[in-house]
Amino acid sequence: MTAGTVRVWRSRDERIALRWHRRPAMAAATLLLLLIPLGVVALLTGSFDIGPAELWATLTGQGEPTVARVLGTIRVPRLVGGIVVGAALGVSGAVFQTISRNPLGSPDIIGFVTGAATGAVVAILVFEAPPGIVSLAAVCSGMLTAVLVGALSLRGGTAGGYRLVLVGIGVGALLGAVNDLLLTRSQRDDAIAAQIWLVGTLNGRGWAEVLPTVIAVAILIPALLLMRRGLAALELGDGMARQVGAPVTIVRLGTIAIAVGLAAFATATAGPIAFVALAAPQLVARVGRSSSVPLVGSAAMGAVLLVGADLLSQHLPLSLSAPVGLVTGVLGGVYLLWLLSRGR
Amino acid sequence: MTALLVAPPAIRRRGSRRVVAVLVGVAILMALTVLSVLVGSRPIEPSVVWAAITRPDVTDDAHLVVTELRMPRTALAIVVGAALGVAGAIMQALTRNPLAEPGILGVNAGAAAAVATGIAVTGGAFGTLGLFGFSFAGAAVAALAVAALGGIFRRGADPVRLTLAGVAFAVTLGAYTQTLLINFPSVFDTFRHWAVGSVQGRGGELVLPAVAIIVPAIALASLLGRSLNAVAMGQDVARSVGADPRGVLGAGALLVVLLAGAATAVAGPIGFVGLTAPLAVRLLVGPDYRWIVPLSALFAAVLVLGADILGRVLLPPAELETSIVTAIIGAPVFIALARRRRLMRL
Amino acid sequence: MNTPSRLVAASIRLAYEHRVVVPDLDVRIPDGGFTVIVGPNACGKSTLLRALARLLTPERGTVLLDERALSAYRSKEVARALALLPQAVVAPDGIAVMDLVARGRFPHQRLLRQWTTSDAEAVNRALEATGVADLADRRVDELSGGQRQRVLLAMTLAQETDILLLDEPTTFLDMTHQIEVLELCRELHGEGRTIVAVLHDINQACRYATHLVAMRDGEIIAEGAPSELITAELVEQVFGLRARVIADPVTATPLVIPLAGWEAVR
């Protein structure tokens, strides 16, 4: 089997010389374009439908005030939230899977997402905090969990990929028990609020919740792309990466820090959402037939997956209702079964 | 040629250690059993408790608490714990993964999801037989799926991959179960009570079926000890010493499903027991499954009963679920294991 | 020794965590030579190679390149001067030969300068030199052991360094492929490169090396040209093996033949 076609572009003095594989690039571009029709559908449908003409009118500043309000305060932030949270999770998963060299090693499995959830639950139940503080608590708690897992998996100066994953699972289980503990101790109303938060949903997320993640994504993903070459070198093993001149420790710490940050912000905005971080990188690597896990492609696939799942959760058949976190959870299972049938 | 007529000192020490472990385990279990019957949210005089056991008076409230609540609860805790401990030990031998156990590998979650489905489908009216049946079915499906995902059926299954597969699968099943709960509020009430992973408030009518399934299963598992020793060294070595790896895998898997399924049917999903107990046993007694299986039953029973008692006394007047206590004890053990320089091979 | 040496280890002490592997060692790698390090298991050969490649920092002493401490260079500068082919290289699933070899160009590239004409030419040269040019589009995981090793060698070559360090390049290869890789190394040496290899087969080492370094327990027992160095006494001293040493009937280099039965090792 041959690898795909490779494209090269060089500027005249060769100060810029780029090389990419066609298929993965096209896959990423297609996914990004796919967001447009998905986005339009998301804006048009909901508790009441808006016609395309009305949508256009509102976007150009001539629509009815009620429609403008629904769009501006509910649907647009929800759509933007879906895009950035999905992108953040997709990229975070891509980094973790590359670093741990395991297709199943992603932040929702190795405890970071649970850790962010613990912060939010504590904020809601113990301090009865407003949404902004809850998000902040989630981000801080997610970062702390990552530091804890990192510290625990450090041994003799190196953290083996597999050790990170396993320690993460353990810490995730511990924090999950802590979450359960907090829930059982609380009053009924608080418990419900915390339960709802813990399930993962884009429902009711307005600009206040979404904006921090937009900013985080806008800063962190480009920062990650700067380290992309180092990440690719790390794929060859520490010895090879080091001898080829890549700053191994900086790249590893830096990319993990960014990945944790992205996962924490995503969780702060929408609660813990399972499987997007796990599935997006793998799916896009298969679709684009690339050998290493692509970063931009994972972001695009994550966004498409989450926006799609959110649409699905709003329009479930049989008048079932399920927040998007559960939809991705169940779909993730389907994905896992598919992985299984491929014998991978 | 010198013949070893007497075992070397290290081996003899191990033999005496085993006996000590058994005696200590039994003693602690008996002490905890007594404690369990004496302790509860409602203070009852020990003399009353004794009367309730020896000459129960059905009109006396206090007697009822002892006979209808505490005694069944104690019995269930012991039986559930033993089942989970043995299931964990068997899984560790079969997968050659020291981190394997029915909670982590999603078997309990599978049983729970099946029970939730059962409740949703039948409206909660399926009786004890149905409860166990759904639970077994769910446990079996989960075990199969995780084993396949984790690469057991191909050579060279890697412990990390297996653990990850289990966790991922458990997350999926959790999401599925939650979806059910949200959409079938009637299920929610019945299920919520059951799903917390606790032996509190389980009907006494569960005791007999649980014992009837679990005790023979544990006995059978103990007989499997020699074969497990062979299989724990790998398929090739197992065959060359005359064991049948496929047969052992089948028998072991069946026992795991029965044990984990029964335990989860009774108490809801309780994790980490199957990890912690066999590990403690192995540290004391060495990697011999003829001893590990029965002793895991003993140590795990101690663990679950102890966790249940702790749950009763830590946060009065509320109770803390057993599964939370076992997780808070067991997760650090899991982490400590994962930190070892070489993942312990069995 | 009078031959010039760009790569020199001066009184280095190497340890992993707290286990000292090499207590105090000096070595000068002859420029333009094919140096082979031999010795029994766990004698420190790979450790020494890794220290020479700057993968391991000496606890005491320094490794010098062009009379300047290795630690004083920037990583990319070192990577443009010497290349190491380690024992454990992970090839990402499904990667094509061309892409894997291209990864060796890392020290010559920058963020936006990923594929200049010199990069392309270097990769092509490396593919030609190792004889895998016709495999360029194939997936690495579909290749045979010998082909894969040649591809890894090409990746190291693409780095375009004058000094090549090879850590047991022939392990797990069958005899034919071992010879293939070693002949390739000889060719590369003939083109003027300095090669330092760790080999576990002393007879192969004698055939290909211009300079042999025999180690035991973290020390250099002897070094020199194979035909002068390898005697039955040295073999016993370094390996604990009683053997006869004759002239190889094909190449006239020393050929080590273990004695028969338990006599060889007791």
Gist of the model:
Chain B is mainly alpha-helical and 346 residues long. In chain B, 75% of the residues lie in helices and 0% in strands. Chain B is globular, with a radius of gyration of 21 Å.
Would you give an account of this structure?
The complex is a heterotrimer of chains A (344), B (346) and C (266). Chain A is an all-alpha fold. Chain A is 72% helix and 3% strand. Chain A has a single domain (22-342), classed as ABC transporter involved in vitamin B12 uptake, BtuC (Orthogonal Bundle). Chain A has helices spanning 22-44, 52-59, 65-100, 112-125, 131-153, 161-185, 188-199, 207-226, 228-234, 238-243, 248-270, 276-287, 295-314, 324-341; strands at residues 6-10, 17-21. Chain A has a two-stranded antiparallel ribbon with strand order 1-2. Chain B has 346 residues and is mainly α. Chain B has 2 domains: 21-71, no CATH class; 81-338, ABC transporter involved in vitamin B12 uptake, BtuC (Orthogonal Bundle). In chain B, 75% of the residues lie in helices and 0% in strands. Chain C has 266 residues and is an alpha/beta fold. Chain C is globular, with a radius of gyration of 19 Å. The mean pLDDT of chain C is 91. Chains A and B meet through helix 6 and helix 14 of A and helix 5, helix 6 and helix 14 of B.
What distinguishing features does this structure have?
heterotrimer, A: 344 residues, mainly alpha, ABC transporter involved in vitamin B12 uptake, BtuC, two-stranded antiparallel sheet, 2 strands, globular, C: 266 residues, alpha/beta, four-stranded antiparallel β-sheet, 9 helices, 31% helix
